[in-house]
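Take a specimen:
=====
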Amino acid sequence: MDNPRISHMKVVRRILRYLNGTVNYGIFFSASSDDNDAVITCYSDSDWCGDKYDRRSTTSYFFKVFGAPFS
C-alpha cells in the first residue's frame, strides 16, 4: 500500500477479470422439505512428519453444508 508498482496493478486487474467472469458461478443448496436444519459435515486428515525428506507435516480438510461441498 505504501509503494504500489505496475506489477501490483496488473495482478489486481487479473483478479477483477477473473471475478467478473465467474459472477454466475455458485454452490447449489437444495431445499429439503423433510429437514430444514443446517447440516454441516467436516472431514479432516493430517500426517505429522510424513515426508521422508524434509519431515514436513501435511493436513487437509473438506466441509459440506446441506450436502454440497463448501471448502
The chain has a mean pLDDT of 83. The longest strand covers residues 40-47.
